[in-house]
Amino acid sequence: MRYYTLKHKDVAHVAASKDGKRAYILRAYRTMNMLLLKGHDGSIPGLSEAVELGSPDVEILSPIPHPRQDVICLGINYADHAKEAESFNKDAFSKERPDPIFFSKRVDYSQGTGNIIPMHEDICDSLDYETELGVIIGKEAYQVKASEALDHIFGYTIVNDVSARNLQTKHKQWYFGKSLDGFTPMGPCIVSKDEFDGIPELDIKTYVNGDLRQSSNTRNLITDIPEIIETLSAGMTLSPGTIIATGTPSGVAMGMDPPGFLEDGDEVICEIEGIGRLVNKVCASDVEYED
After folding, report:
1. Per-domain residue ranges for the chain?
2. Tell me: the pLDDT tens digits for 134-147?
3. Interval 64-85: pLDDT, tens
4. N or C, which end of the chain is more exposed by having fewer CB within 10 Å?
5. Confidence band, pLDDT 50/70/90 cuts, at residue 48
C-alpha cells in the first residue's frame, strides 16, 4: 500500500493507494502521524472517496508534513560518499571510526514533491542535495535486536537531506546547516514494508536539471537498516512516526570538481526504486512554499 497526505479541494487528507494512481481518502485519520500511532491494516473502508492523484485539484504533500520529532540521520553511510566528503573538507567529514555517525535534522514543515527548496542565499552559498531512503517506524522500538527490526518498520519514503555546506563546515557540526526551513523535502508517499521482500535493496538516484548526479543501491549502506534500529533502540525509544534518513551515496554537489552547488531555478529529482520520484525546484528565498 502507498500512503499519501494530499490536498483535495484545498482540504488536507490522509489517503491510501494500491497503484499510485487512484487514492482513497482515509477519514478515520486526521494526519499521517495519527495513522502511524494507531496503525493501519491496509484495508480500504467501504464508501471511501476516491481521488485521481494526477488530477489538477489534487496536490500531493509530504507524507508527514509536520513530523512529531526531528529526523534522525546517518552521516557518511556509503563508502563512496565518505571519500568525496573527506576530499571536500577533511576536518568536517573525516570518518576514522567504524561506528555509525548519527545526527538530527530539525524540520518544522516538510514540503512535498512539486514544491520549492528555498536557497537561503543570505546565509548559504553552497546549497547541496542528498537523496536518502527514509525509514518510517510504525511500532515502538526499544532494545530491539537487528533480527527483529523489520517488525517495527511501517514503510519507506524518499528524503532529500538538503544541506548548506558552508554552514555545515563553519559551525563544526551538521545540525544548523541541514535544518534551515525547507531543507527536508519528503515523498511522494510512504510505501508499506509489505510491498518489499524483507529489508529492501533499491536503486537510488539523483538528477539535477536532467543530469544524473547520484546512482547507487541501498544494499551499499555501511550500517544497514536493522543495525541502525538495533543501535539506536539500545538506549532510545523509537516511537511510531519516527523518521530515519539512512544516508546518501556519492555524487553530491560538494564532491564534484569544481563543486556543482544548486542555483536558482535548478530542478532536483530524487528517485528510489519502488517508491517513486521526489521533484523540487530551487528558488530564491523570498518565494514561499505552501504549508
Report:
1. 2-60, 71-283
2. 999 999 999 999 99
3. 999 999 999 999 999 875 666 6
4. C
5. confident
Do residues 251 and 217 touch, judged by C-beta distance below 8 A? no
Grid coordinates given for 101: 555517525
166-221 tens-digit pLDDT:
999 898 889 999 999 999 999 999 999 999 999 999 999 999 999 999 999 999 99
Q: Is the dihedral of CA 243, 201, 132, 66 positive or negative?
A: negative
So what CATH class is 71-283? alpha beta
Owner of C-alpha cell 487528507: 13
Helix (H) or strand (E) holding 14: strand 11-17
Contacts of residue 212, defined as CB under 8 A and 6 or more positions apart, other chains included, come to: 205, 206
Residue carrying C-alpha cell 557540526: 173
